[in-house]
Amino acid sequence: QVQLVESGGGLVQAGGSLRLSCAASGRTFSSYAMGWFRQAPGKEREFVAGISWGGRNTDYADSVKGRSTVSRTNAKNTVYLQMNSLKPEDTAVYYCAQRERPYATSNYRNTLEYKYWGQGTQVTVSS
Fold first, then answer.
1. What is the pLDDT of residues 1-37, one digit of tens each?
2. What phi, psi does 107 have (nearest 5°)?
């Protein structure tokens, strides 16, 4: 059974930084691309960032590009999302997700490509 557990969320002032982590267990982490998504109240879940199974390929939503970095440490079964210059509009629950099929290197933005999801971690950015 795959489990994804996010951590690192919290309350931060605008302009601040947070580093989210997602620890995975249950199958060979290094074989699967990972994604970060977020959902604000009253809005649909949206793509934030994605990273390939080996970490060489990444993709970012325009809203966070230049302010965020997705990375992974396969030896620790963990994927990270470093977010800088946070804005109030970044306030949301952030979810990590794992792709259904191994060795994906593209199409990170489609939620239907992901089979497993974490429970989410709240990020609140005050103005």
1. 999 999 999 999 999 999 999 999 999 999 999 999 9
2. 55, 50
d(CA 125, CA 106): 30
| Average pLDDT of the segment spanning 89-112 | 95
For the chain, give the longest Cα–Cα distance.
41
Which residue, 124, 119, 109, is CA-closest to 33?
109
Which position has the token pair 């690192």? 8
CA-to-CA distance for 20 and 89, rounded, in angstroms? 17
**8 A C-beta contact, residue 107 and residue 113:** yes
Count of residues making up the chain: 127
